[in-house]
Specification:
By secondary structure, the chain is mainly alpha-helical. The protein has a domain of 64 residues. Helix 2 packs across helix 3.
């Protein structure tokens, strides 16, 4: 069964090829960019519905939309990062992986390994 789409087959093939050429780092950066854009659009919509809404109320509404009503709330304050901060953190993580001893994919695929509670994950 074919899906309805307003994208031509040629455009779809070009998109798939472009995505295949992207590195994992580029893909993760794109995900972050799309996530941030979704948050900005959500904030704009919340403010258009209620101009006096607070940052905390916008954050709570975002959590409800993305995580659902039943997700426990941990309190705290909304995290605000500048456009470059997320990109810098992501780049740092991928640089660390790239400079670790050996290929990260070969390390992952070479053998199964259980993580112990004493392993450092950060």
């Amino acid at each position: 069964m074919s899906r309805l789409s307003d994208t031509s087959p040629e455009a779809q093939r070009a998109l798939v090829e472009a995505l295949r050429r992207m590195t994992p780092q580029e893909k993760w950066l794109r995900i972050g960019e799309h996530w941030n854009e979704a948050r900005r659009q959500h904030e704009s919509a919340e403010r258009s519905r209620n101009p006096s809404v607070t940052v905390e109320e916008i954050h709570e509404a975002w959590l409800r939309k993305t995580l659902g009503e039943s997700c426990p709330r941990g309190g705290g304050e909304p995290v605000r990062t500048g456009a470059g901060q997320g990109r810098q953190k992501c780049s740092h993580v991928f640089d660390a992986i790239a400079h670790s001893s050996g290929s990260s994919t070969s390390q992952i695929n070479s053998r199964a390994r259980m993580i112990s509670p004493t392993d450092r994950v950060c």
